[in-house]
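Z., the sequence and structure:
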Amino acid sequence: MNFLAHLYLSGNNTELMIGNFIADHIKGNKFDHFNEEIKKGILLHREIDTYTDAHEIVRKSKRRLHERYRHYDGVIIDIFYDHFLAKNWQKYSAIPLNIYAKSVYQLLQENIEILPEKTQGILPYMIQYNWLYNYQFAKGIQLVLNGMNKRTQGKSQMNLASEDLLIHYQLFEDDFTLFFEDLRNFCNKKINKTN
């Protein structure tokens, strides 16, 4: 899953959200300096990734992309699934997405000094281009895919993946809807178990 899903799956716990958001920029077990809730968020992020990678529905989604993108198929599916979460946001949250996104940006800015350097580096772009809100639009997804392609020096060709999204749009959306229900249940159990 990508940024929006990881944040959403943290529930209303702001410190869990911070941990879940920064986890990709934390190497190994180098997170002892964070408080317990942020640590739980980092571990929750890793459990979400493991659960997602092993799930048969996600594997089915990836198979549609594998021939063209190889090992980048999972990254692309993460982005596609965030698109479907943003597009169908009102099904999952009573808080409108634009308000939710602003509150997340504010939370991260208020805690900027504890964020890893890499996270601090992407935050201004995330806010400037309002990634969380713009995931719902084809143009927003294209910008993300273009950025990811640049980071791989064009090797991934991820900038082309919006074509695949359009070709298989309903299949990807159906996959997301089924999978996300499973993932929400998985996370709710994890969060309730640790509280």
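DSSP finds twelve helices and no strands in the chain. The radius of gyration is 16 Å.

Let me know what you think.
H.
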